[in-house]
Automatic annotation (TrEMBL):
Organism of origin: Nonomuraea thailandensis
Annotated ranges, domain DUF2264: 9-349
Protein name: DUF2264 domain-containing protein
Length: 596
């Protein structure tokens, strides 16, 4: 059996792509230029939404036809060619928002350019000269334009490289400057940050590792050996971040893109790095996870949500067409049926082979996977989508102390996966701008990491919500908070202390949906109060977040300890005199932590 873990073959992937594409046609304008999916408009308005609907489904169509060597029984190229002609015609009533009219068009232009490259013999080369001229004119405002210094830099590179390939206007200095900026995003062990901040999320895989390979193909160059080495090293971490049920790590913005999280595994396959059977296992696990949980829905639509619809998951830039960036996760269909990634036998994920612990240095993550429950957990001491000392309110998708494949962070002020100081009104403090300590593996295999910050209270600032922190009014400040995490199996022993002044201390645990993975917080001496908050998340209307706290003000300088569980962990570890006895019998002596 070629797919012993997921049961998914290339035919399943092709069927999913065809279902998405045929469903999209029902929501297209007569010219095919606008694909307007049902739902309230996004923050950029219906014109941008309709362009996203075209460009993002166009990705799926392009991958589908490219992998079939031009075979096109659904007439995808003809269908989208008609939309290209209308959308790029400045006088057509369905014409697209231009790159010099709205920044989001710069994003969608990159998808259009990529597909025109991948399908060139069957689409671009067959377009009437007038339409080709219109497409070039539509893309031309990318030349010399300003792009945000994040993953967007690749959108300019890709568009201008395509223009260069068809004899259109382009500026080599734009491409060179963009490539240099993209190199500045490199971090340890093959990771990229999404810009200059501590911004680590799925964009590392579905954007920052995706575009370099496609750009090199467009430029007619062999892939840069540095990019390949980084990709191979990154994938070694990435396969450890997929749960046994196929769920990707639930962390970071743009989660409505869902199985776009499979993209880097297909990039590895196309580049010839990594084990084909393991790469397909990871990718198929992710897409099957969503397909079995209502994405796409019964009408073949990808709604704004995680499993089913959940509008609250959206950022301000998200509209009804936005979820179709999930089409990036179908990139494997651009590879023919006889490619090794489709013919190799699936291999088990790391979490299916056995329990593991792993340090991921760039984002400052302690990773623990447990075979019994298939849950992968990340304890976060390095990521907040900000900078040290930035003094901002926490973004729930970045600044929590923990993320997993089985839990969804709660919105609002920190409760779940947090160590906070409560003010006189009971409001929780924030940690964004923390100073990251070292993350390391002990000789026993146990993981240790730490961070420290000055507790601060305040609100997110004005402006659009893009999923990360926004500067606002000056913060109120409290005591210094220091946290040390010691992780083994399904358990974390979390040590916390306040310095400088007192305050009431609260430790929040994992926010697990009722009926899902077990969640528990066991407070040690001094953390005598406890409770469980209930909230709605995309994983369940009743999501349980346990916590423990000091009854009154914490004693400055005193270490408080709590044990946190999500999953199947048995009895809690015992912390006594700086020794931890774990459920598996391992004993870790931590005398050096006394000196922190």
């Amino acid at each position: 059996m070629i797919s012993p873990y997921t049961g998914w073959t290339r035919e399943h992937w092709a069927d999913l792509a065809d279902r998405l594409l045929l469903s999209a046609r029902r929501h297209a304008s007569p010219s095919h230029a606008r694909v307007s999916f049902p739902g309230a408009p996004g923050g950029y308005g219906p014109d941008v939404d309709a362009l996203e609907g075209f460009a993002r489904t166009f990705l799926a169509a392009g991958f589908r036809v490219a992998g079939e060597g031009g075979r096109d029984p659904l007439g995808l190229m003809e269908w989208y060619a008609r939309g290209l002609g209308a959308g790029t015609d400045p006088h057509h009533p369905d014409r697209w928002v231009r790159l010099d009219e709205h920044g989001q068009a710069k994003v969608e232009a990159a998808s259009i350019a990529l597909v025109l490259h991948l399908t060139r013999p069957w689409l671009w080369d067959r377009l009437p000269p007038r339409v080709r001229e219109q497409v070039v004119d539509y893309l031309a405002p990318a030349v010399g334009s300003a792009y945000p210094p994040i993953n967007w830099v690749w959108f300019q590179i890709v568009v201008e490289q395509f223009l260069a390939s068809v004899g259109g206007p382009h500026a080599q200095e734009d491409i060179d400057a963009g490539l240099a900026l993209a190199e500045s995003f490199e971090r340890e062990d093959g990771w990229y940050a999404d810009g200059a901040e501590r911004a680590y999320d799925h964009y590392a895989g579905w954007a920052l590792h995706f575009y370099p390979l496609l750009w090199s193909e467009m430029a007619g160059r062999a892939p840069d050996p540095r990019h390949l080495a980084r990709l191979e090293r990154f994938l070694d971490d990435a396969v450890h971040l997929v749960g046994g049920d196929g769920s990707p790590l639930i962390q970071g913005r743009s989660l409505a893109y869902r199985f776009a999280a499979a993209t880097p595994f297909w990039v590895g396959a196309r580049a010839g790095v990594g084990s084909p059977g393991l790469l397909r296992r990871a990718a198929s696990g992710i897409v099957r996870h969503f397909a079995e949980h209502g994405a796409p829905d019964e009408d073949g639509i990808l709604t704004l949500g995680w499993h089913g619809p959940h509008r609250a998951i959206a950022q301000d830039y998200s509209g009804p067409g936005s979820p179709y960036w999930a089409a990036k996760g179908l990139f494997g269909l651009s590879l023919p049926a006889d490619h090794p990634v489709w013919t190799a036998v699936e291999e088990p994920l790391p979490v299916e082979r056995g329990d593991f612990t792993r340090v991921v240095r760039a984002p400052g993550w302690l990773v623990s996977g447990t075979r019994a429950d298939g849950v992968v957990r990340v304890v976060n001491h390095g990521t907040d989508h900000s900078r040290p000392g930035s003094d901002l309110a926490d973004a729930p998708l970045y600044a929590r102390l923990g993320y997993s494949t089985a839990t969804f962070p709660l919105p609002g002020d920190p409760l779940d996966q947090s160590v906070v100081v409560l003010d006189e009104e009971g409001r929780a403090s924030h940690r964004t701008g923390f100073t990251a300590g070292p993350v390391r593996v002990l000789a026993s295999g146990t993981l240790v990491g730490s961070s420290r910050w000055r507790a601060h209270w305040g609100e997110q600032g004005p402006g659009p919500d893009h999923g990360y922190s926004r500067a606002g009014a000056p913060m109120r400040h409290g005591p210094e908070v220091e946290v040390v995490s010691v992780v083994r199996g399904a358990w974390e022993v979390r040590l916390a202390r306040l310095t400088g002044q007192a305050g009431r201390l609260r430790v929040g645990g994992w926010p697990a949906p009722e009926g899902g993975a077990a969640t528990r917080v066991a407070g040690g001496p001094g953390l005598g109060e406890s409770g469980t908050e209930v909230a709605a998340t995309p994983l369940g209307e009743r999501t349980l977040a346990p916590w423990c706290a000091t009854p009154g003000e914490a004693e400055p300088g005193r270490w408080y300890a709590a044990a946190l569980l999500v999953g199947d962990g048995g009895q809690p570890p015992v912390f006594d005199d700086w020794k931890i006895t774990w459920p598996d019998g391992t004993i870790d002596d931590l005398p050096d932590l006394r000196l922190l």
